[in-house]
Design goal:
306 residues, alpha/beta, Rossmann fold, N-(1-d-carboxylethyl)-l-norvaline Dehydrogenase, domain 2, 3-stranded mixed sheet, 49% helix, disordered N terminus
Length: 306
């Protein structure tokens, strides 16, 4: 039993959402020794888990009926509503006589986070708002940053599970995890667009890409993000770690929240439009470093092209 610091009988983990992020996260739950079951709306994505003897369910409600903790990792607000609040959603499978917990690791709006949390609590469960910071590689390695919004007691009980995903940060109450994730993705987008513009500008000045990357990374502007993404431009590798489509989705969530709070976000708005332009060119399913492609299209140059 792995829940030595939590509720001792919470070892049945149901995982909903086996996409690019959810799949490796679910495997890490399994590798950590928890009793895992899974659900995915595209049933074929459950096949590798079934082949390993992991129980699969036809609905989120059925999975929830047999779980102590349900983890959700889906693409956005409507998907989360569907798998939790729909007719066969997680909430329908919660039992007031069991101390069940729902942990959402998706990136959604604050409104949807609170809506799902309220419905979980009304059904007798507890809710942890725990979006994760990181892409597919860190998810595979169990090196995500988990931004947990919940009370201290519940966090202590689910921490052994969250540890399977990576490093856990308690950022406040339910809703604060979502707000923290949107804050970080705001900065991520602005950094990526600024990086793309700098590389495109440097190419227009006939500077060598490796020289530019060396100067950036060895001065005050250096960042692990640029250290990782720069070589992708040089090698023209845009396999999705964090697709442009999802970045665009998150920026819409940020700007909606900023509008509600009457906080101007001009750089974020520009980054959103850059992401939209990239999507319009057909690169939405590529890594966010593909933001550079809309600049290349306009300038007629290709950065890193040997």
């Amino acid at each position: 039993m792995l829940w030595s610091t939590g509720i001792s009988d919470m070892d049945q983990i149901g995982f909903v959402g086996l996409g690019a992020m959810g799949r490796p996260m679910a495997w890490n739950v399994h590798a950590a020794g928890f009793e895992l079951s899974v659900f995915n709306r595209t049933a074929s994505k459950m096949d590798p888990f079934a082949e390993e003897g992991i129980t699969t369910y036809e609905t989120p409600a059925a999975l929830a009926r047999h779980s102590d903790v349900v983890v959700t990792m889906v693409t956005g607000p409507e998907a989360l509503r569907d798998v939790t609040l729909g007719g066969d959603g997680v909430v329908r499978g919660l039992n007031r006589e069991r101390d069940q917990v729902v942990v959402d690791t998706s990136t959604v709006s604050s409104e949807v986070t609170m809506e799902v949390a309220e419905n979980v609590e009304e059904a007798g469960g507890r809710f942890v708002d725990a979006p994760v910071l990181g892409t597919v590689g860190p998810a595979e390695r169990g090196e995500l940053l988990v931004l947990a919004g919940t009370d201290e007691e519940t966090l202590a009980e689910v921490r052994p599970l969250l540890d399977a995903f990576g490093d856990v940060r308690h950022v406040g109450a339910v809703g604060d995890g979502t707000s923290m994730k949107l804050t970080t993705n705001l900065l991520l987008a602005v950094m990526m667009e600024g990086f793309s513009e700098a590389l495109a500008f440097a190419d227009g000045q006939d500077l060598q890409l490796d020289d530019v990357l060396d100067v950036i990374q060895n001065g005050v502007l250096g960042a692990p993000l640029y250290d990782y993404k720069g070589p992708l431009v040089r090698n023209r590798e845009f396999d999705p770690q964090f697709p442009v489509d999802l970045l665009f989705k998150d920026l819409n969530l940020v700007l909606d929240a900023g509008g509600d709070a009457e906080i101007p976000l001009p750089a974020t708005s520009a980054a959103r439009e850059a992401a939209n332009a990239t999507r319009g060119l057909g690169h939405g399913d590529e890594d966010m470093m593909a933001l550079i492609k809309h600049l290349e299209t306009v300038s007629g140059r290709t950065v890193g092209d040997s």
